Each structure stands twice: as C-alpha cells, then as structure tokens.
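Methods — Computational structure assignment.
A single polypeptide chain was analysed. Its primary sequence is given first, followed by the predicted tertiary structure written as structure tokens.
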Amino acid sequence: MNRFTRWSLVVAGVALAGLVVSRSNADPIPENQQKAVDKGLEWLKKSQHKDGTWSANGQNPVSFTSLAGLAMLCEGSTINQGKYRDQIRLATDWLMKKNNKQGGRKGLIGNPDLPGETGRYMYGHGFAMLFLACVYGEEEDKERRAELKQLLTDAVTYCGSAQSTHGGWFYTAKGDPPGSDNDEGSVTVTQMQGLRACRDAGIPVPKEIMKKGAEYLRKSTTPDGGVVYSLGRGGVGAPAGGGRPALTAAAIACLFSAGDYKDEYVKKWFGFCNSPRGVPLTGGGQFRGFDEYTHFYYAPSIYFIGEEGYGKMFPNEPKANHLTWSRYRETYFKQLINAQSGDGSWQGAGGWGSGPIYTTAVYCVIMQLDNNCLPVFQR
C-alpha cells in the first residue's frame, strides 16, 4: 500500500463539508515553479551536515532539521524511497536521538541545554512532531516503527503537560522556570500543527488538548478579527487592536488542524488576512516581516479552501476580491521565484527571517502543496 492510499484512508473519514465546494485535484505545478523548487531542494541537500542536521552555526538544529526534512517529504520522497530518501533517513535518525526518555522532560524532542535553544525549545518540539509523524507512516522496519510510535506518543503527552492554563503554549514548557504559566501565539500554532500530524498518523491525541488550544486562539482574537501576540495571564479576551497578520493566518491553519472547518472564527480571520491590515497579495515584490512564518500557515489554509471556499464564506464580496488558490499561487509564487538566489536558496524575507535554511525550507514546502503528499497539508 503506497503513501497516498494509506493516508487517504485516514483523511477520508474527516468531514470537510461546508467550506470546500470542489474536491477536484489541484493543477500540476507549473514548470517555472517546479524549477525553483528543484533548485531549492538541491541547495538544502548540499547544506545538510554529515550527522543529518541542518542548522545556522549550530543554532536551531531541531527546528531546521524538521523543516528541511518536511520540504523533502513534500517532494514525494519518503524515508524508504525517492530522490531525497537518504537525507530524510539521516534527519530522522538524528531527531530520534534527541528524544528525552526520562525525568520531567520525558517526551520532549530537543535539547533545552543547548545554548541558543534554552529559552525556545518548544518550537523545535512542535516542528519535530510534525516531521516525524509524517515519516512514521512510511517506516517499514518493525522495531524502528515501534520506537517512533512510542516517541510520538510521549511527545504528545509532553506537549499536553507543557500547555498553559489558558490553553496556549510558550517558548518553554509550563513550569519552566518553576511557577511560570505563559502563552504566545506562534508557539501555540506550532504545537497544534504537530499534534494534528500525530493524530493523522494514528497517534492518540487527547481532544481536550486541541480544544483548549483552539479556544485560546478564539479568545486571542480582537473585534476586527486579528489575533494578538499573547492572550496574557488574564485569560478573558484580547484587547482591542494589536492583531498580527502572521498569527491570524496561522490561527486559521490551527482550527483546520483541530477539525473546526466551519468555525465562525475562520471567517473572521480570513476576513482580517484578506484586507490591507492583513496579508494583501499585491505582487509588488515586497516581503513583510515574518513572511516565511506567515505563509507557512497561510498557504495551506488557502490551498484547503481552493477556488470557491472564500466566496462561500463571503458571498457579498466582489468576486475580484475573492481569495483563491489560483490567485494566491499566481501572485505570491511569482514573487518567490523572482526572489530566489542563483544557488537555489532564499536568503530571508522581510528582515525577520532566521537565515536561508529556514526560509528555503518553508518556501519549498508551500510551493509543493499541489503535490498533495502529506495529510497535514491535504484538502
């Protein structure tokens, strides 16, 4: 049974009625777009260290390794076969060794003691769950498959214990340092996406964790539909103003991940994003701050609603203003292709990037959504 058949059995049981009108397959990736992706993936391949990692001067190895590996999975390669099989296998082996197996950090994928990651290890944990859950379905060795299953099960448990009282996540786990109970939107969506991938892989994910995370994002929404940086310790609601486009785009993907495809907040967030305050698709060649992070979540959300989903949410809006996958791809991907360096990498966007590995991995992921390879990104 191949990847598409096996995963389709999982996805087939999820009810997506209400938003998506057409279930037809996406168009093939255009030649110029595919050429850019191929160059990007080859640059990532050459940038992988011998131990299987990707990092920026030794920093963020868990996050970068997971994201670069994810970009190669989106190409269609797996841990067993395909053009980037060896790179995926090396990345998987290294990440599996970073699993904490005992003590208060049991289940955490990462090394909080590594300089530069001590204060933000939950990012790596979320991205590692996402990547390893996508690998898990293709692992054929019984012993390694069992090890991966236990690793992901423990990772989900740890994620639940790290969740704040109000349902969000922070750069570090709840109680680290002792007594801390903080939350922050970008880390929250990273955990939600990783949990979604684990659930799709057949790993038990308590509904309460996802429910609390989704409710956290709803409470973080301002009256005009934007999601704020942090709900804060009050837990009552977001203050007026302060909605951030990147977090709002990511919130859409999170409710989709939680299975809330028809939630009223999805409409609020799409409305905010598809406005001058949000993530306008101008095609003018200007990248905004946190561009990579924004589109890592925004692109799959638009891909999911396809050509008619936005019009169904906003039937009274002029059709020229409708947000569709074809419009997004034509406008934004053209901008990406023009910004690619000669060596195949992307050097960063908007002045807020984390370097070419992060940027290249993210852009390769979103430009391959039409490959429809991974359940977490499928319609």
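Note: The CA atoms of residues 70 and 131 lie 6 Å apart.
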